[in-house]
């Protein structure tokens, strides 16, 4: 299901060797328990006029709780933002963005990031290529115990 959320219960049941009703019950339990968080539609940013992607490492000063929420919500609201990570280490945030071109990236960094009083530093890395990974599987019992 992680590779194709449109997989039917019948096809999924056949793949794992159980009855469709059993498959439906198991998927329902995974949803109720919070393992399955939802289904997402994946779009190609380049086909939407955003062919350049970058990772922005952002340092916020002071890094205080009252700034975290508003900063994250502002970044999440930007149409260029794809993902925001709150980090440990020298950088506080890693923001994956998709923009039209270099001029658009420069505008985004200058107008939406460094223009903010709390942003101390932004480091930009262009993405040449990316690959999806997964699926995510439960950790093995031996990894859990030691």
Outline of the structure:
This protein has 146 residues and is α+β, with helices and mostly antiparallel strands. Helices cover 35% and strands 21% of the residues. A hairpin with a 6-residue loop joins strand 2 and strand 3.
Can you walk through the features of this model?
There is one protein chain. This protein is an alpha+beta fold and 146 residues long. The protein folds into two domains: 6-39; 45-127, Alpha-Beta Plaits (2-Layer Sandwich). The protein is 35% helix and 21% strand. It contains five helices and four strands; from the N terminus they run H-H-E-H-E-E-H-E-H. Strands 2-3-1-4 form a four-stranded antiparallel β-sheet. Strand 2 (81-86) and strand 3 form a beta hairpin. The longest helix has 13 residues, at 20-32. It is elongated. The two termini are 30 Å apart. The mean pLDDT is 92.
Layout of secondary structure:
Layout: H1 9-16, H2 20-32, E1 52-60, H3 65-77, E2 81-86, E3 93-99, H4 102-113, E4 119-127, H5 141-145
Antiparallel strand pairs: 1-3, 1-4, 2-3
Physical arrangement of strands within the biggest beta sheet: 2-3-1-4
Count of the separate structural domains: 2
Radius of gyration, in angstroms, nearest whole number: 20 Å
Q: Total number of β-strand segments?
A: 4
Percent helix: 25-40%
Would you identify the regions where 5 or more consecutive residues have pLDDT less than 50? none
Shape: elongated
Strand content: 15-25%
Q: How widely separated are the two ends?
A: 30 Å
How many strands, what sense, and barrel or not for the largest sheet? 4 strands, antiparallel
CATH topology of the largest domain: Alpha-Beta Plaits
Query: Which class of the largest domain in CATH terms?
Result: Alpha Beta
The helix/strand order is HHEHEEHEH
The name of the CATH superfamily of the largest domain reads Lrp/AsnC effector binding domain/regulation of amino acid metabolism (RAM) domain
Protein structure class: alpha+beta
DSSP helix count?
A: 5
In the CATH hierarchy, the architecture of the largest domain is 2-Layer Sandwich
What's the rounded overall pLDDT mean?
Answer: 92
């Amino acid at each position: 299901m992680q590779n194709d959320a449109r997989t039917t219960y019948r096809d999924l049941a056949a793949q794992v060797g159980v009855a469709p009703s059993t498959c439906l019950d198991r998927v329902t339990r995974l949803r109720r328990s919070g393992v399955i968080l939802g289904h997402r539609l994946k779009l190609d940013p380049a086909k939407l006029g955003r062919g350049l992607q970058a990772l922005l490492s952002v340092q916020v000063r002071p890094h205080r709780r009252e700034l975290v929420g508003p900063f994250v919500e502002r970044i999440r609201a930007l149409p260029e933002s794809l993902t925001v990570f709150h980090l440990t280490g020298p950088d506080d945030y890693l923001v994956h963005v998709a923009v039209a071109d270099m001029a658009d990236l420069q505008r985004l960094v200058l107008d939406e990031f460094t223009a903010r009083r709390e942003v101390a530093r932004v480091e930009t890395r262009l993405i040449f290529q990316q690959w999806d990974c997964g699926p995510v599987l439960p950790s093995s019992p031996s990894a859990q115990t030691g």
